[in-house]
Specification:
alpha+beta, Thiol Ester Dehydrase, Chain A, 3 helices, homotetramer, two-stranded antiparallel sheet, 134 residues
Chain lengths: 134, 134, 134, 134
């Protein structure tokens, strides 16, 4: 397992008239957490795309426990839960500044060759990056 | 069970640079489908909010099978899978114009009293609307 | 001049905690209006993109007069104000169901050749479509 | 005049299939810049809302010069161009990491009393914060 934490400030644009973050926006927060994890490990996702790899999302699952609110500085904790293969498995926990757990999530992404549009093996850079953690 | 279908045109703003609809935007499509279902049944969600009821999302689950693309006229099929109580259970299927299944989803929403912020019983209007289907 | 009207239902996702449509979302409503105008004229914007033309936005201007609210069925009135050349000039007026003017806007888009990334002349299909109106 | 700079990382969710940041999303970047400016000055916008003040947008104007792209770490330079009164005037410049000017913008916001929904005078905290700069 490998875990990383990212802090994100909730934007006004992300709230809805209930006064909470619109539930669909957590997908974006999860994206930021995944991307910042890879960046910190030395492999920005953008580099992967530049090399012809795409990582579309296969599944997304969120459980909403407490609302995130405007201007909250939330912490998104992302965990790579399995050794990356054709797919990559992530879990998420989101906390507010009072350390209240706001939601938990899971995502599965798949490696795809941009040229063929078909699933492909995990790029060697990713394999090497994570092998020590599994 | 009660099923309703809504058509939604994919907007440019909803695509990402992969050329697909950004995965997080399906939460919004599901919202539109739920709301249009209630409107067609004679009970716009806005009316519920005006009466002091809120329906925050407890959980969201999506499986992405094939991408939705810009300008696709997608069909979102929403099903109320259980008799509404404190919670309301929905499932979703999204198809493109070629009748390809793009994704499936599930959501659980909870009825909340806006005054107290606490979960509350399903409003009587909702109960009456759905009782013939279960 | 050529004018077209499109109706759009305001989504929950588009509101913010002020209880209004977030101002940035009007750019998307303007997009929908432009696209539906072209579709009605027989030339979906998607077709233009398929032929290698892109229309990035050069400028956007909005004046907000009254708020749009959740579930409003707004009317977006789009006008092509000049004969299309390398650029295309649009103006917008948005009304709610009570015919209250919510905002006005202007946009300039430019035709770009997707292959070169450079501005290009207005495609002949567009020229022919609009010449009778100027 | 008072000027502040904020850095923002472009998210995948903010791109569109043209491979650029969707033009409407700059409104959100401008929001982040305004809010971070106020926070740095010691007066988070959230505090203003907690005291019953709202700042809806009266007008928005953007000129797009060059595209922002996925994962760009953009710098948003916000300037308060006039002494705040009932309205507050902002201008914006957005640069990418190569110091290329991507766009310029202007916004006018108005102070509104949340209780009455009417425009109100600039809160004294704001007046005091900015008086030394004009």
């Amino acid at each position: 397992m490998y875990t990383h934490q990212t802090k994100i400030r909730v934007r006004y644009a992300e709230t809805d008239q209930m006064g909470y973050v619109y539930h669909g926006n957590f997908a974006t927060y999860y994206e930021v957490a995944r991307v910042e994890m890879l960046r910190e490990m030395g492999l920005p996702y953008k580099k992967l795309e530049d090399r012809g790899v795409r990582m579309p999302v296969l599944s997304l699952q969120c459980d909403f426990i407490a609302p995130a609110r405007y201007d909250d500085l939330i912490t998104v904790k992302v965990t790579v839960t399995q050794k990356p293969s054709v797919k990559m498995f992530f879990s998420f926990e989101v906390f507010n500044e009072n350390n209240v757990l706001l939601n938990t999530g899971k995502m599965i992404l798949v490696f795809v060759d941009a040229a063929t549009g078909k699933p492909c093996r995990c790029p060697i850079e990713i394999t090497e990056l994570f092998e020590q953690y599994f």
